[in-house]
Amino acid sequence: MNKLLYIPAFLLLLASFSCEDVVDINANFDKSELVVDAWLNQLDTTQTVFLSLTQDYFQASASPAVTDATVTLLNDTKGTQIPFTHKGNGAYEWTPQPGETIGEVGDEFTLSVSYQDWNYQAGSQLNPVPPIDSIVYEVREEELGSPAGIYAQFYARDLPGEGNTYWIKTYKNGMFLNKPSEMNLSADGTFDLGSGTDAIVFIPPIRETINRIADADDTEDDDTVPPYAIGDQIRVEIHAITIPAFRFLGIAREQMTNGSNGIFALPVANSPSNVIGLEADAPKALGFFNVAMVSALEVVVE
After folding, report:
1. Would 1 be classed as within a structural domain?
2. Which domain holds residue 159?
3. Total count of domains within the chain
4. First and final C-alpha spacing in the chain
5. CA-to-CA separations, 301 to 139, 147, 232, 271, in angstroms, rounded
6. Residue 28 — pLDDT band, cuts 50, 70, 90?
7. Tens digit of pLDDT for each residue in 186-202?
8. Does 105 share its domain with 166?
9. Dihedral of alpha carbons 93, 65, 34, 289, sign
10. Beta strands 276-277 and 118-125: pairing type?
11. Pairing between strand 285-300 and 34-41?
Protein backbone atom coordinates (compact mmCIF):
# COMPACT_ATOMS: atom_id res chain seq x y z
CA MET A 1 0.00 0.00 0.00
CA ASN A 2 2.83 2.38 0.84
CA LYS A 3 4.53 1.74 -2.52
CA LEU A 4 1.30 2.46 -4.45
CA LEU A 5 0.90 5.77 -2.67
CA TYR A 6 4.55 6.71 -3.19
CA ILE A 7 4.30 6.68 -7.01
CA PRO A 8 1.65 9.43 -7.46
CA ALA A 9 3.30 11.51 -4.74
CA PHE A 10 6.61 11.32 -6.62
CA LEU A 11 4.92 12.31 -9.87
CA LEU A 12 3.33 15.31 -8.17
CA LEU A 13 6.75 16.34 -6.86
CA LEU A 14 8.19 16.25 -10.39
CA ALA A 15 5.27 18.30 -11.69
CA SER A 16 5.83 20.96 -9.04
CA PHE A 17 9.45 21.36 -10.15
CA SER A 18 8.48 21.54 -13.83
CA CYS A 19 6.17 24.51 -13.07
CA GLU A 20 9.19 26.59 -12.05
CA ASP A 21 10.71 26.74 -15.53
CA VAL A 22 11.22 30.30 -16.84
CA VAL A 23 9.34 31.01 -20.08
CA ASP A 24 10.52 33.93 -22.20
CA ILE A 25 7.68 35.55 -24.13
CA ASN A 26 8.35 37.71 -27.18
CA ALA A 27 6.09 40.78 -27.08
CA ASN A 28 7.00 41.59 -30.71
CA PHE A 29 7.95 45.13 -29.69
CA ASP A 30 9.34 46.95 -32.70
CA LYS A 31 9.79 50.66 -32.04
CA SER A 32 8.44 53.30 -29.68
CA GLU A 33 5.26 55.22 -30.51
CA LEU A 34 4.03 58.58 -29.25
CA VAL A 35 1.48 58.51 -26.43
CA VAL A 36 -0.73 61.58 -25.87
CA ASP A 37 -2.49 61.79 -22.49
CA ALA A 38 -4.62 64.96 -22.71
CA TRP A 39 -7.65 65.11 -20.42
CA LEU A 40 -8.45 68.82 -20.14
CA ASN A 41 -11.39 70.69 -18.60
CA GLN A 42 -12.89 74.17 -18.18
CA LEU A 43 -11.88 74.58 -14.51
CA ASP A 44 -9.60 77.54 -13.75
CA THR A 45 -6.71 75.28 -12.78
CA THR A 46 -3.51 74.30 -14.57
CA GLN A 47 -4.23 72.13 -17.61
CA THR A 48 -1.66 69.46 -18.49
CA VAL A 49 -0.88 67.34 -21.54
CA PHE A 50 1.45 64.39 -20.88
CA LEU A 51 3.60 63.05 -23.73
CA SER A 52 5.54 59.81 -23.52
CA LEU A 53 6.76 56.89 -25.64
CA THR A 54 5.66 53.28 -25.61
CA GLN A 55 8.05 50.58 -24.50
CA ASP A 56 8.23 46.82 -24.41
CA TYR A 57 5.31 45.28 -22.49
CA PHE A 58 7.73 43.51 -20.13
CA GLN A 59 9.94 46.54 -19.49
CA ALA A 60 9.80 47.20 -15.74
CA SER A 61 10.41 50.96 -15.77
CA ALA A 62 8.55 54.22 -16.34
CA SER A 63 7.72 55.12 -19.93
CA PRO A 64 10.24 57.52 -21.53
CA ALA A 65 9.02 61.14 -21.43
CA VAL A 66 8.85 63.29 -24.55
CA THR A 67 10.52 66.62 -23.77
CA ASP A 68 11.08 68.21 -27.20
CA ALA A 69 7.56 68.49 -28.65
CA THR A 70 5.39 71.52 -29.46
CA VAL A 71 1.85 71.41 -28.04
CA THR A 72 -0.91 73.85 -28.98
CA LEU A 73 -4.62 73.85 -28.22
CA LEU A 74 -6.85 75.46 -30.85
CA ASN A 75 -10.35 76.68 -30.04
CA ASP A 76 -11.82 76.21 -33.52
CA THR A 77 -15.09 77.90 -32.53
CA LYS A 78 -13.51 81.13 -31.30
CA GLY A 79 -10.44 81.05 -33.53
CA THR A 80 -7.99 81.30 -30.62
CA GLN A 81 -5.01 79.17 -29.65
CA ILE A 82 -3.28 78.29 -26.38
CA PRO A 83 0.39 77.27 -26.31
CA PHE A 84 1.39 74.65 -23.74
CA THR A 85 4.86 74.90 -22.15
CA HIS A 86 7.00 71.92 -21.19
CA LYS A 87 7.53 71.87 -17.42
CA GLY A 88 9.56 68.67 -17.17
CA ASN A 89 9.11 64.91 -17.37
CA GLY A 90 6.88 65.11 -20.45
CA ALA A 91 4.30 67.43 -18.82
CA TYR A 92 3.15 70.36 -20.99
CA GLU A 93 1.11 72.92 -19.06
CA TRP A 94 -1.07 75.99 -19.45
CA THR A 95 -2.36 77.97 -16.46
CA PRO A 96 -5.37 80.25 -17.07
CA GLN A 97 -5.46 83.77 -15.70
CA PRO A 98 -8.00 84.51 -12.92
CA GLY A 99 -11.49 84.20 -14.40
CA GLU A 100 -10.17 82.68 -17.63
CA THR A 101 -11.35 79.25 -18.81
CA ILE A 102 -10.52 77.02 -21.70
CA GLY A 103 -13.84 77.60 -23.46
CA GLU A 104 -17.61 77.40 -23.34
CA VAL A 105 -20.17 74.64 -23.88
CA GLY A 106 -20.37 73.74 -27.54
CA ASP A 107 -16.85 74.91 -28.42
CA GLU A 108 -14.86 72.66 -30.73
CA PHE A 109 -11.16 72.08 -30.01
CA THR A 110 -8.15 70.70 -31.85
CA LEU A 111 -5.01 69.57 -30.03
CA SER A 112 -1.88 69.92 -32.19
CA VAL A 113 1.33 68.05 -31.32
CA SER A 114 4.56 68.37 -33.34
CA TYR A 115 7.20 65.78 -32.46
CA GLN A 116 10.42 65.27 -34.40
CA ASP A 117 9.39 65.36 -38.09
CA TRP A 118 5.75 64.46 -37.49
CA ASN A 119 2.56 66.38 -36.78
CA TYR A 120 -0.47 64.99 -34.95
CA GLN A 121 -3.96 66.29 -34.27
CA ALA A 122 -6.96 65.25 -32.18
CA GLY A 123 -10.39 66.80 -31.77
CA SER A 124 -12.91 67.21 -28.95
CA GLN A 125 -16.06 69.11 -28.07
CA LEU A 126 -16.97 70.74 -24.75
CA ASN A 127 -20.27 69.11 -23.78
CA PRO A 128 -22.68 70.29 -21.03
CA VAL A 129 -22.67 68.63 -17.61
CA PRO A 130 -25.45 68.21 -15.02
CA PRO A 131 -25.06 69.69 -11.54
CA ILE A 132 -24.61 67.46 -8.50
CA ASP A 133 -27.64 67.86 -6.28
CA SER A 134 -26.23 66.33 -3.13
CA ILE A 135 -23.83 63.87 -1.50
CA VAL A 136 -25.37 61.80 1.29
CA TYR A 137 -23.90 59.18 3.62
CA GLU A 138 -25.09 56.62 6.13
CA VAL A 139 -23.75 54.03 8.55
CA ARG A 140 -24.15 50.43 7.36
CA GLU A 141 -23.60 47.07 8.97
CA GLU A 142 -21.14 44.58 7.50
CA GLU A 143 -22.61 42.75 4.51
CA LEU A 144 -21.39 40.77 1.48
CA GLY A 145 -17.77 41.12 2.53
CA SER A 146 -17.98 44.91 2.92
CA PRO A 147 -16.94 46.17 6.34
CA ALA A 148 -19.33 48.11 8.54
CA GLY A 149 -18.90 51.87 8.36
CA ILE A 150 -19.95 55.05 6.60
CA TYR A 151 -20.94 54.75 2.94
CA ALA A 152 -21.74 57.66 0.62
CA GLN A 153 -23.57 58.24 -2.64
CA PHE A 154 -24.19 61.27 -4.83
CA TYR A 155 -27.38 62.41 -6.54
CA ALA A 156 -27.50 63.95 -10.01
CA ARG A 157 -29.79 63.72 -13.02
CA ASP A 158 -28.72 62.92 -16.57
CA LEU A 159 -29.22 65.77 -19.02
CA PRO A 160 -32.11 65.51 -21.53
CA GLY A 161 -31.21 63.90 -24.83
CA GLU A 162 -29.72 60.45 -25.37
CA GLY A 163 -25.99 59.94 -25.79
CA ASN A 164 -24.67 61.91 -22.81
CA THR A 165 -21.53 60.30 -21.42
CA TYR A 166 -19.78 61.05 -18.14
CA TRP A 167 -16.71 60.20 -16.07
CA ILE A 168 -17.42 60.52 -12.34
CA LYS A 169 -14.29 61.15 -10.27
CA THR A 170 -14.13 60.91 -6.48
CA TYR A 171 -11.55 62.40 -4.10
CA LYS A 172 -11.22 61.29 -0.47
CA ASN A 173 -9.39 63.91 1.61
CA GLY A 174 -7.90 65.28 -1.59
CA MET A 175 -6.70 61.87 -2.87
CA PHE A 176 -8.16 60.67 -6.17
CA LEU A 177 -9.72 57.18 -6.00
CA ASN A 178 -7.80 55.91 -9.01
CA LYS A 179 -7.99 52.13 -8.89
CA PRO A 180 -9.18 50.63 -12.22
CA SER A 181 -12.18 49.15 -10.40
CA GLU A 182 -13.05 52.65 -9.15
CA MET A 183 -13.21 54.17 -12.65
CA ASN A 184 -16.85 55.30 -12.67
CA LEU A 185 -18.29 55.75 -16.18
CA SER A 186 -21.90 56.45 -17.10
CA ALA A 187 -23.96 56.85 -20.26
CA ASP A 188 -27.38 58.51 -19.86
CA GLY A 189 -27.28 57.79 -16.13
CA THR A 190 -26.68 54.04 -16.63
CA PHE A 191 -23.72 51.85 -17.58
CA ASP A 192 -24.01 51.58 -21.36
CA LEU A 193 -24.92 53.54 -24.44
CA GLY A 194 -28.14 52.49 -26.10
CA SER A 195 -29.95 51.77 -22.83
CA GLY A 196 -32.92 53.87 -23.98
CA THR A 197 -32.96 55.89 -20.77
CA ASP A 198 -32.99 59.67 -20.73
CA ALA A 199 -32.91 62.41 -18.10
CA ILE A 200 -33.03 59.93 -15.21
CA VAL A 201 -31.35 60.11 -11.81
CA PHE A 202 -28.05 58.21 -12.00
CA ILE A 203 -28.71 54.59 -11.07
CA PRO A 204 -27.63 53.33 -7.58
CA PRO A 205 -24.53 51.33 -8.67
CA ILE A 206 -23.08 54.47 -10.25
CA ARG A 207 -24.13 56.71 -7.37
CA GLU A 208 -22.38 54.39 -4.91
CA THR A 209 -19.12 53.95 -6.81
CA ILE A 210 -17.79 56.94 -4.91
CA ASN A 211 -16.81 54.59 -2.07
CA ARG A 212 -13.37 53.04 -1.83
CA ILE A 213 -13.31 49.56 -3.35
CA ALA A 214 -11.07 46.95 -1.72
CA ASP A 215 -9.14 44.60 -4.02
CA ALA A 216 -6.20 42.23 -4.00
CA ASP A 217 -3.69 45.10 -3.88
CA ASP A 218 -4.95 46.30 -0.50
CA THR A 219 -3.23 45.21 2.69
CA GLU A 220 -5.06 43.19 5.30
CA ASP A 221 -5.51 46.32 7.40
CA ASP A 222 -6.98 48.26 4.47
CA ASP A 223 -9.74 45.69 3.99
CA THR A 224 -11.08 46.39 7.48
CA VAL A 225 -11.15 50.20 7.14
CA PRO A 226 -14.58 51.65 6.30
CA PRO A 227 -14.75 53.72 3.11
CA TYR A 228 -15.32 56.95 5.07
CA ALA A 229 -14.99 58.14 8.66
CA ILE A 230 -16.01 61.20 10.65
CA GLY A 231 -14.09 64.23 9.39
CA ASP A 232 -13.37 62.85 5.91
CA GLN A 233 -13.83 65.20 2.98
CA ILE A 234 -15.65 63.79 -0.06
CA ARG A 235 -15.37 65.56 -3.39
CA VAL A 236 -17.31 64.27 -6.40
CA GLU A 237 -16.80 65.60 -9.93
CA ILE A 238 -18.85 64.80 -13.03
CA HIS A 239 -16.85 65.23 -16.24
CA ALA A 240 -18.92 65.45 -19.41
CA ILE A 241 -16.85 63.51 -21.94
CA THR A 242 -17.38 62.66 -25.60
CA ILE A 243 -18.74 59.28 -26.70
CA PRO A 244 -15.34 58.23 -28.19
CA ALA A 245 -13.70 59.16 -24.86
CA PHE A 246 -16.30 57.05 -23.00
CA ARG A 247 -15.48 54.05 -25.20
CA PHE A 248 -11.74 54.62 -24.82
CA LEU A 249 -11.97 54.66 -21.03
CA GLY A 250 -14.28 51.65 -20.99
CA ILE A 251 -11.80 49.55 -22.96
CA ALA A 252 -8.92 50.83 -20.81
CA ARG A 253 -10.79 49.79 -17.66
CA GLU A 254 -11.43 46.33 -19.10
CA GLN A 255 -7.73 45.94 -19.89
CA MET A 256 -6.58 47.14 -16.46
CA THR A 257 -8.95 44.77 -14.63
CA ASN A 258 -8.34 41.93 -17.07
CA GLY A 259 -6.24 39.84 -14.69
CA SER A 260 -9.19 39.23 -12.39
CA ASN A 261 -10.96 37.29 -15.16
CA GLY A 262 -8.59 34.33 -14.94
CA ILE A 263 -8.86 32.01 -17.93
CA PHE A 264 -11.57 34.26 -19.39
CA ALA A 265 -9.22 37.25 -19.61
CA LEU A 266 -9.26 39.16 -22.88
CA PRO A 267 -6.16 39.50 -25.10
CA VAL A 268 -4.09 42.57 -24.27
CA ALA A 269 -4.90 45.42 -26.67
CA ASN A 270 -4.63 49.20 -26.89
CA SER A 271 -7.70 51.41 -26.58
CA PRO A 272 -8.57 53.17 -29.88
CA SER A 273 -6.90 56.57 -30.04
CA ASN A 274 -8.27 59.79 -31.55
CA VAL A 275 -4.75 61.15 -32.17
CA ILE A 276 -4.10 61.13 -35.92
CA GLY A 277 -0.84 61.69 -37.81
CA LEU A 278 -1.18 64.35 -40.51
CA GLU A 279 1.53 62.91 -42.76
CA ALA A 280 0.67 59.76 -44.67
CA ASP A 281 3.76 57.94 -43.37
CA ALA A 282 3.57 59.28 -39.81
CA PRO A 283 4.05 56.60 -37.13
CA LYS A 284 0.89 55.65 -35.27
CA ALA A 285 0.17 57.49 -32.03
CA LEU A 286 -1.68 56.26 -28.94
CA GLY A 287 -3.61 57.94 -26.13
CA PHE A 288 -6.57 60.29 -26.14
CA PHE A 289 -7.60 63.95 -26.10
CA ASN A 290 -10.79 65.21 -24.46
CA VAL A 291 -12.02 68.54 -23.11
CA ALA A 292 -14.64 68.16 -20.37
CA MET A 293 -17.12 70.45 -18.69
CA VAL A 294 -16.99 69.67 -14.95
CA SER A 295 -19.48 70.05 -12.11
CA ALA A 296 -18.38 69.35 -8.53
CA LEU A 297 -19.61 69.16 -4.96
CA GLU A 298 -17.81 68.65 -1.65
CA VAL A 299 -19.01 67.58 1.81
CA VAL A 300 -17.34 66.77 5.12
CA VAL A 301 -18.62 63.69 6.96
CA GLU A 302 -20.04 64.87 10.29
Report:
1. no
2. 132-241
3. 2
4. 69
5. 11, 18, 5, 37
6. low
7. 999 999 998 899 999 99
8. no
9. negative
10. antiparallel
11. parallel
